[in-house]
## 1
Amino acid sequence: EVQLVESGGGLVQSGGSLRLSCAASGFTFSSYWMTWVRQAPGKGLEWVANIKQDGTENYYVDSVKGRFTISRDNAKKSLYLQMNSLRADDTAVYFCARELELPSFDIWGQGTMVTVSS
Amino acid sequence: DIQMTQSPSSLSASVGDRVTITCRASQGISKSLAWYQQRPGKAPNLLLSATSTLQIGVPSRFSGSGSGTDYTLTISSLQPEDFATYYCQQCYSTPYTFGQGTKLEIK
């Protein structure tokens, strides 16, 4: 079964750090761009960052540049999001997703909640 | 950044109705548009990519069209399971921006 499972969310104080993980199974992880999307409580979807198959390219939304780092380990079939200098407006459910060539996101994890307290 | 303006923000309709949701990009996106359905507490589900390519397993009552800056999602005959929130997303350039969402509710 093609699956993505996120972990690592939790409650953190403003200014703190958190590392999210996304474990992939059921497909050739190293063949796909991967992405992180977040959704604040009761709000819409916001694309956060993505990373190329071999990890040599990545892109970020402006609001997280310099604070978040996306990475991957193809041997472990895992995607990561290192989040530093967290702010209250980073509070959201964070989803990892597989990116198609077109691109669009066809496989999503169930999401992991990150709460930043001020 | 490309801004996506989705309308309406909410829509009340009945089973069997035909509904249309529109999305306007702040610049041309060459049909690089995807539509997602999201039910409460769940991850989004990809319905269509590249404006009109239906994903495997998505019912044919869903269709998409558009070009340039203007795009539409049409549901030809609403079913009970279609009541959810729908998002458009431009996939033309990063940051990949989403529309604000359309909440489709039962009348």
## 2
Amino acid sequence: DIQMTQSPSSLSASVGDRVTITCRTSQIISSYLNWYQQKPGKAPKLLIFAASALQSGVPSRFTGSGSGTEFTLTISSLQPEDFATYYCQESFSNPGSFGQGTKLQIK
Amino acid sequence: EVQLVESGGGLVQPGGSLRLSCAASGFTFSDHWMSWVRQAPGKGLEWVANINQDESEKYSVDSVKGRFTISRDNAENSLYLQMDSLRAEDTAVYFCARDRDWNSYPYLDYWGQGTLVTVSS
């Protein structure tokens, strides 16, 4: 099984900040990595697929990068609606695994 | 507009069974793999199972193998999850999600709002 290590587990930041979340995998997965955003009581929302492809309708301040075993999600300038929990997910295996999540809170 | 609506959740005793349903609309259901993902209260996401377009391929996480069965009815645009021998640790919100892929890179692009399953005596 592929192990996912997402960091940090929580993060406090202010509107306008640039933040980066990291996801590491226990084996090489090429670009089989997706990122989701989830707000309390809601379904997850796809942000990034194939490590760096921006899902339609997602603001360009969200950027995904990486390949192999290390990946990052960057939000270039935090907006109030971005405070949520973020999950990475590998799709190299079937079914794939999710990271444990990063809770992004307002400082 | 793509819509996925789950139903069938509820309270069940340990060892009991439930059948979840997901009604799909707004897209050609028979063209897509489909998935079930769950989230225990206050916890992260766990991809439970998925199924291909004609039910010839099914995959599930080890913790539910032999107890949960994923299936679909393309004529009814519906996805199902038969859950048997339920345990307390199966308590979660269960989401139905549509699979897509781009250049063979899979992802889940639409999700339902979820249905809560509580396993307790």
